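Q: Hi! First time doing this. I have a protein sequence and I read that you can turn it into a structure. Is that right? Here it is:
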Amino acid sequence: MHDTYCHVDQHKEPENLCRELEAKEIYTIAVTNLPSHYALTLAPLKNFKYVRPALGLHPLLASRHAAELTAFERLSRSAELIGEVGLDFSPAGIKTKELQIQSFRHVLKCLRGRPRFISLHSRRAEDAVLAELRNFSMGPAVFHWFTGSAKSCESALSAGHFFSVNISMLASAKGKSFVEKLPRERVLTESDFPHVRVNGASVGPLEIQRVISALAALWKVPFAEACSQLHRNLQSADAGLFNS
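A: Yes, that's right. Below is the predicted 3D structure, encoded as structure tokens:
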């Protein structure tokens, strides 16, 4: 099982969570919001096989990017996992649109030339994110909690990108309809802990089987078959990083 998008550093007991994930062999990508946050996770996660930190530069923190860009460039030289990065043109982020674009271009410039696992934030900015990926000749990346149009989705699929889905997406008719139309080989799972909540409680990576069960029901296949499909997908998306 895998969780490609989890804010491990926002858990009240992150090291205990990581030990549980390690014991259960749940591949978990611990996304971060800023390079300074990523730097703090390197030592605690150094000896974990299944929990890996990802270098991030969250678009909604654009006002703090100027002080973090140099660190992103330096850390990106060794970081194998990137997330979350991208653009947010929703009401929460539209005021910093131009700053976000500048930062995202800096990110892609730093990453160009070497395959990485990249988790993307693209709320109301899907076409802009796709355009920047094309401009920088970036290979397949992963769209986290995609909410764009069918046309944008088709463009992302044509470019070889993946989509990570969570239990909240699969709990609505609209979300189910979207995921059902995705090629199974382009689907990954995420918890988006602590931001996804069910009955008022956060759903974390230890409950990622709930996402797999929902996908198995949607695909009309046994749980084990869904697990196998998703594991193959992760191997395709991560360029073998979790096997190293």
